[in-house]
Structures are given as structure tokens and as C-alpha cells.
Amino acid sequence: MAYSNFSFNLAGLVAVAAAAGYASSARAQDGEKPVLTIYTYESFVPEWGPGPKIEAAFEAKCECDLQFEGLADGVAILNRLKLEGASSPADAVIGLTTDLVPEAKATGLFASSETDLSPLALPVDYNDDTFVPFDYSYLAVMVDTEEAGDWPKSLNALVTGDSEQKIAIEDPRTSTPGLGFLLWMKAVYGEDAKAKWEELSDRILTVTPGWSEAYGLFTSGEVPLVVSYSTSPAYHMIEEETERYTAAEFSEGLYLQIEVAGMLEGTDTPELARKFLDFILTEDFQSVIPTGNWAYPVIDGVDLPEAFDKLIEVENPLYIDPETVAENRQAWTQEWLEALGR
Amino acid sequence: MARDRTIRLILGVAAALLLTGFLAGGFVVLAAGTDGELPLLAILTDPYLRGVTLFTLEQAALSTLLSVIGAIPLASALHRSRFPGRSVVLRIFLLPQALPVLVGALAIITVWGRNGVVADVGAFLGLPRFSIYGLSGILIAHVFFNLPLAARLMIAALDDVPKESWKLAGQLSFSPWTTFRLVEWPAIRTVLPAAASLIFMLCATSFTIVLVLGGGPGATTLEVAIYQTLRYEFDPGRAVALSLLQIGLTAIILTVANRLGGSDAGQFGLGGRATRWDRAGPIRRGYDAVVLILGLFFVLSPFVAIVLAGITADLWRLLSEAAVLDALFTSLWVAFTSGLLALFLSVLILLGVEALASAERRMTLTMPLPRRALEIAASLVLVVPPVVVGAGWFLGLREVTSVFSAAPYIVVLTNMAMAVPFAVRILGPGFAAAHNRYEKLADSLGMTGFRRFRLLDWPALRRPVGLAFALAIAISLGDLGAIALFGNREFTTLPYLLYQRMGSYRTDDAAGLALILGVVCLALIWFAERTSAIEAKAK
Amino acid sequence: MSDPRPALKLDQAVFARDDWSVTLDLELMPGEWLALIGPSGAGKSTLMDMVAGFLPLTSGSISIAEEDVSGKGPSERPLSIVFQDNNLFPHLTVFQNVALGIAPNRRVAPHERGRIENILDTVGLGGKGGRKPHELSGGERQRAALARAFLRRQPLLLLDEPFASLGPALRRDMMKTLRQLRSEFTETPLTILMVTHHPEDARSYADRVAFLDQGRIAHVGPVENMLGEAAPEDVRRYLGSQDHSRRLDAI
């Protein structure tokens, strides 16, 4: 008797579940409007991310249905495109870092943007005919002021300082901020980077596969320092109303990370895609960025929330041009491995 | 009857082929996409990879050893002790399998980390704060995830000891050591190969734990190298070659271990109630108390950390969010569907295994190799990197259909494949025993076809099927491997959502989701085990 | 029934669980052999478990050789047991299994080896001490169990259907061995309490028979009164059903 109940419950649940699966796949289409499919990274899409507001703002102008598809991160977007090749259902992508640009161009899958880049107000010169920057931020070492006491004021102080005050970093082999920090060290120390990594190694609590793991260790109080972004404190100030977490201002400067968007050669709605790229450099798009993506807008004249005034003002951004990165990434990663690989 | 057995054999082999075909399909597509040959030789001679391989095997072997050795005293103390909440504890022992690894790793850090409970107590006692990052951290985490599994296997074996043995132990006044040597150890020994091989496979493919707790790139497993190769270098040929290396090495090690350690039959059992009469002097009571307190602290404390972190989240808001409910619902149907499919496939494979075992008994088959191959095919699933299978299927599917619409199917199938090794181990032993005992009777009565299944096979499956289903559900609920590749806005599971929240600073939400996931899973395990226990009792 | 020195005495011994209970009053004299019969579910195994200390008493008392053992554990009671099955540990040899009777927690001393070999000879297992239980027949396994029980030299022996799974001829053999062991290997008179489904075993060897029904000892008396023509009505009915089922078995 008990068993037949069990089977019944099972059958019922599966039936309901199947019906739900059907229902959710049926609501994917949104009328007869042309569909613009854009690949992006996961945190772009949820209701608190920039995705929904941008979608609404763009759809108000374009008479189209904008659909974001969230993938793990910028690297995943590029890999997905390589997997899909010319038959990709995507019309455009948003969320690659400039480090990936040479690799992305090498696939031959991207079309030139023809976007007027003159409104750009980036901390470095930028001109690329294919990819349009949509936001930027600086890598920074975040400090848990309750746990840290004092904290390093320069990269050099971090490298040479008290190794009992630990830092969590991300793995450059598996994550964007991890690669960014590797480039930061390279930008500051050049040939000496390997020796400096060896010096820093005692201070590294652990090397995580991605940003989430490292930041989880940081917010749970396990580690007082973590490699994140200079805009991270804004989240805590605005959403959690706490100033416990701050970004350390390093005298050598912070490493710049620019995020870009591009359209695909294989798109069936090239005009719509191009329109979207143009839309990126408008205030409607850019005003969503500060509290949507917790990054800086790429054009002037966008109102920033008050909390952004408290963030580090970077005087000398550090930046290695993408071609150099692409050429040396493997060698530099190998160097990093040897320095930390005990 | 011969025809019957042939049909069963065909069904079993077909199921195994379906399973391996699904996995191999990914490999083939991926390998076909590369120009030229697989760089197998290059991999074998690469010094970096040699180091990675050695470390992979070293940490997996140590983790297995510690999990199994640690489980022995805990299982025997749990088996002879009665205390309130014991059955809940035994159910929680299945929960680590359902925990998204990152959640478990962070919970372990809350307990064992630099600012964890253990370090705080140590500091209070004037001990230096020790660092778990490095091999020790990897081992602690692997033992947390796997020791309970081993303990459940061992407790099931102890429940199978005939009641007369416990009576004799009491009557002949065995000392605790004699009881262990003559009664407990022989029972525990029978499940060691199963426990060890399962745990070895789970640890050899460890990824997140190794990176988060390993402390640096010195701790890198093959699975990390595969991930890196596929994602950052996008070199499918190399990824396939590395995967083959991982699968091949594991297969060799398991075969050798099987040779040395005997059969790897093992079952998880339902935690029956063996009554024991061996002497319980004050020394052994004290020993049991110490073992239980230490063991349960070790296994349960991370769960306490998850609960404490989770209740600070706004659970009501989370539970009223459409995104959360959607994900919960998706998780449930994916888990139920893949759980049912895993059961179905496992039963078919077992039918084939038993058809071969029967041929061996009747001497029409003189070597156990085909049966072994079938069994190993069902286990090796655990060491096939899901990222490779997923990527392969992705490539293959996009030629014929929209990948996003195929995503649910691929995720369900992958979860199914992951649960099969567990289900086969849970259902297998009782199934084999029933065949051994009643096969001749069924033959002599001329029982065939479905009737034979209903009267001979099904009764042997009925009791453990609930547990197998519960564990299959748990594995699917906690899975992030398949969904990470195929998840999208229309198809989001709870762990996927959890990672998404973690990735956007929302750690409180993530903690709340982890708690919700854990509670849902515990409820399902409780439901499945209780249902099958009631059923067994009614019988 | 008022001998002042009973070897086993159950005095209003009650075991109760849920809606089921047994209440037992019974006295066995030293050297007496009592056969316990009754339908299944009557409480025979419960009685054995209570005497052996595997079940705690709810009330009343049990004494063995005039010592109250009610609060004592199984290992502290002066008795031996042979079960129907699983008397031997499968991974130990016959010799090792039997040796557990004298040295459960240590190695066998050299001077004890002779005693063990001797009793193995008596039960007909001479030369088979090195074998594992699965290499023996069912009867041989029970012989080894008997050997171990006698090696322990306890004044009370509990036999819980020890020969139930053996055929009639083999069973007669075993009973003979049992008698031989009893005369050769016990110094004090050995008291035996035996559960059996076979009235003929009781008829040939027991002194008295107790008939258990619904958790009570309904009748107890000498063999001829209990199993003969003058047996009480309910005992006769039970024996009749036993005969019937055995005839069915034979077919």
C-alpha cells in the first residue's frame, strides 16, 4: 500500500514537472518582432543586473525582442562562439574583456562595428573597429577593515609586507580577475615578476578557480584581503549600507579592465545588431552600468551615485595592450606556475 | 529460460552501451572536431602534466585511505550505539553528495579555516592557528564529503551480520577487540573495495575543493588541467587526450585494486536495527562516546555552519521570488526525471550482470571478464569529465537543433549517468543474492518474462530502491557540472542560481539557497528511505 | 516441584513489549532435560532469550543455580547456547571456532589444545579442525557448535532448535552425540533446556516436556503424560498439526 502511494506520488510529480517544462519552453517567444540574441555573462542577466533595464530601454526604441543569454563569463562566451562557429544563433555578444579581443578577432566570426567611438571617455586611448567598450573597472585589492587592521598601500607593500596578513587570489588559468592580477604584477615588475610572485607566495592564503570562491572567503571573514575590483565597495555601501569593505589604493596604480561588445558576421539582423552597438554609447545604456554592473560608464556625463565618490580615483591606470597579452599569456602563466607551484 | 536470459543480457548490454555511448558521444564529436591526432604522447611526456597526474593520484589515494579508515571506528560506534536522532544522523550522512561543492568547501572553512571554530578553540587554548590550505585542507574536505558515504556502506554491512553472531559475542563474553576482530571487521571488510573504489573515483576528479583548499597551483588535478585546456586554450584534442588519460589511469588502478581487494560489491543499506549484546563496559562506552562526539562533530559541523549562514538570509523573500521558485521547480523535475532514468538503466544493467553471473554459475561462461566489464562500464562514469562530454554534445547538437532547447535533455541525461554507479551499487548486492537463491526455483517453475521480473527481481529491488532513488535525486540536485555548460535564462536549477548569486556579491542569498537546497534534499532522502522502510516492514 | 536447589528457576518472569507479553514460571532440577514445545509465536524463543539474558525482564526474576541473574548480561550467566544456524564464524576454522569456548579473547594455550582436539574427536570432527565452516555439512557445523558449548563447562545448556534443519537420521545421530558429550564432558549434572519442533526428540531423550502457548506455560509434566495418550487436549491438537505438516513435508 505504502509503495503504491509512493509510485503514485512519483508519477504525479513527473507529470506535473513535464507540464511545467513544456510551459516554460512555450513562453520563450515574444510575438512576431525580430529577435536580437545577445550572449553575455551570467551576472549581466538577473533582475538586479544591468540586463533587464537595458533590454527595456532598447526595446522601447527598436521594435524588436532583445534576448540576453547568460554564460559563465567572457571566456565561456568566446568558447561558445568557437563551438558554434558561423551557425551561432547569437547576433552579438557583450561581456568580453579587451584581453580576449585578439583571440576573438582571430576566429573571424566578428563583423566591424562602424560605431562612432568619439563619445568614449576611457582612461586610456581606445580605437578598435570591431569591439565597442561598454564599461570599465579597475582591479583592486579589497580590504576587510574589521579583520585587517592596517593594510598595504602599494603593490610593493603587498609583496614584501607581513605574510601573516593573507590574501586570496584567483587562478589566471581559470578566471578573468586572476589573469588581470597576473598582468598587473607584470605591468609593475616586468622581468622581476617571477621573483616577486615567489616573494608574495607566502602571503597567498589560497588560489581559487574564480572570483566567487575568493570573494566568498573574503566576506565570510576567512581572509582580510582579496583581489577584486575598485568598484566592489560601492555594492556594499549601496546595497548593504556598510563601509566595512574598502579597496586599497596602490601607489603604483591599479590595473584597468575594459569590457567590450561586438556583433557577429553571421547575424541575420545586422542592422539591429549595429543599432545595439550604437546604443551602448548612449546615456540610456550607460546610466544602468554603475549600480547594475558595479563598474564605470565609458562616456562622460553619466550621473554616478554618491557612493562612487568614495571610491579610489585612479591617477595612473596600468594596462598592457591586448596583442602583447595574447602573445605572452602562456609564457607568463608558466612563469606564475613555476613561482607558486612548490 | 535461455531465451529469457539472452533478452536480459541484451537489455543489460544495451543499457551499458547507451550509458557509455552517451559519454563517448561527447568525446567522439569533440575529437572529430580536431585536425590531426590526439596528442597522447605529448601528454605522457610533459613534466608539468606528470606532476599534475602524480598529485591527482596522491591526493585521491590519501583521501580514500583516510575516509575509509576514519569511517571504520565511526561506523562501528554508530552501529552499537543508540541515541536520539541517530536515524536523522544516518540520513544526513547522504547529504554531502547533494551539496554543491563550493557550499561544502566554504562550510568546511567556517569550521576549519583560519578564523574557523576549530582555530578559535585552539587559540583559546593557546595553540598556534594552523592553516588548512594545502594537502591537509584537500584531505579534510574530501574526508568530509566521503567518510559518511563509507560509514553508511559499513553500517549496512554490519546490519547484515546474522543476529546469532551478536548473541554469541555476548554469550561467549567477547572483549570489544574480539568483537571487532571476529564480527565487525569481517563484515566491514566486505564493503571496503566498493567504498574505496567509489571514493577514489570521486576524489580523483575533484576540482573546486582542490583549487580552493589546495592553496596554490602546486595542487592541481587532471580535472583542472582538462578544464583549463578546454576553456582557456580551447584545445579539444588535448582535452580529450587528458580525459582518456584520467579514465585509463583510474580504470587500471581500480582493476588492480579489485584484484588485490576482492569483489567491489557493496551496498548502502537502510540502517536497520541489529540488536547487540556484546559487553558494554565503561571503557568502551567512553570510547564510543569519544568517537561519536569527534566523528559527528566532524561530519555535522559544516552542516551547522550552512544552517547558521542560511537562516541569516531573508528566506521568505527568497522563497517568494519567482526566479527561486522556478529554479526549485526545475531542479525538482530534473532530479526526479534523471533519478527515475538512472534507476531504470541501473536495473537493466543489473539484469545483464545477473544473466552473466548465472552463466558463470552454470559453467557456460568460464571467465568473469564480461560481467566485470559491464560493472566497470557502470562505474567509470564517475571519472569522465562532464565538461568534455558536455562540450562534445554541444558541438554535435548544434548541427541538428537549437542547443538551448536540447539543454534540459542533456542535463537530465548527464545527471542520470552520474547516478548510475551509485544506484548499481545500492541495488546490486540484494539483487545478486536473490538470484543466487531463487534462480533455480524460478527456472524449475518455468517462470519467464515479466512474471519472472515481478516475482524474482522486483522483490529484491523493492527495499533498496527508495534509497537508490534518494541518492540519485541528491546527486542531481547538487550537480553543477552539466548545468554550468547548458544552463540559461529559461533553464536554471538551484545550484546554478546559487552560483549566479555568489557571482554578483549576493552571498546572503547564496547561503539561503544552500539551506533551501539542503532542506529539500534531506526531505527527499527522508521520504524515500521512510517509504521503502515502511514497505519492507509491511512485507 | 519444591526441591530447594533448582538449577534454573523462572519466578513470574515477565517480558512485555507493545501489546505482547510472556509470563513464565518454571523450575528445572540439576541434571534435568526439559523439552520446550509449542506453536510458533507461543514465546519459545522469547523464553530462551530471557534465560540467556538477551531480553531484559519487565518484572519477576530468573535464577540459575540459586543465583539471581535477572540483572546480569549474557556473558555473566553460567550457561551455553547452540542456535539453529550461524553458530560458527565463517572466516574462522572449526578449531578456532571451538576454541572460542575457552579462550574467546586470547590465544589458545598449548595445554588447552589437547582438550579441544579431544572434544573434536568426540563429536566426530577429528582431523577437520583446520577446515572452514563452509567446507562442512550442516550436521558437522552443529557438531562443532555442540563441542564449543560443552567446552565451556557451564551447568546449563540452552538448545534453540539446534537440529531443526537436519533430516531424521542425522538428528538421531546428533542426539546420540549430545548424550555422549553430556556423560563424558560434564562433571556436575548438566541441565538442558531444548526448544524443538520434533516430539520424537523429546520422547527419546527429555525428562519432562513443557508446552508453551500464547506466552504462558500451559502444561508441564513428564514425557509420557505430555506426549502419550493422556496428553492434554491442546497439546494433542498441536502434536496432530505437527504430524500433519511433517507428512506434507515428506511428500
TrEMBL record, chain B:
What's one Pfam family here? BPD_transp_1
Q: What is its main location?
A: membrane
What Gene Ontology cellular-component terms does the record carry? plasma membrane
Q: Which InterPro entries match?
A: MetI-like, MetI-like_sf, ThiP_ABC_transpt
Compartment(s): Cell inner membrane; Cell membrane
Q: Which residues form the ABC transmembrane type-1 domain?
A: 53-257, 328-528
Lyase in keyword set? no
Source species, domain of life:
Bacteria
Asked if the Swiss-Prot or TrEMBL record annotates the protein with the keyword Repeat, the reply is yes
Q: How does it assemble?
A: The complex is composed of two ATP-binding proteins (ThiQ), two transmembrane proteins (ThiP) and a solute-binding protein (ThiB).
What family does this chain come from, according to its entry? Belongs to the binding-protein-dependent transport system permease family.
What's the name of the protein?
Thiamine transport system permease protein ThiP
Query: Which species expresses this protein natively?
Result: Fulvimarina pelagi HTCC2506
Automatic annotation (TrEMBL), chain C:
Please give the start and end residues of each transmembrane region. none
Among Pfam families, the record links this protein to: ABC_tran
Q: What family is this?
A: Belongs to the ABC transporter superfamily.
Origin organism lineage: Bacteria, Pseudomonadati, Pseudomonadota, Alphaproteobacteria, Hyphomicrobiales
Task: Using the record's annotation, list all stretches that form the ABC transporter domain.
Answer: 5-239
Q: Does the keyword Nucleotide-binding apply?
A: yes
MF (Gene Ontology): ATP binding; ATP hydrolysis activity
Identify the keywords attached in UniProt to this record, alphabetized.
ATP-binding, Cell inner membrane, Cell membrane, Membrane, Nucleotide-binding, Translocase, Transport
What is the name of the protein in this document? Answer: Thiamine ABC transporter, ATP-binding protein, putative
- Organism of this sequence: Fulvimarina pelagi HTCC2506
What highest taxon heads this organism's lineage? Bacteria
UniProt keyword Cell inner membrane present: yes
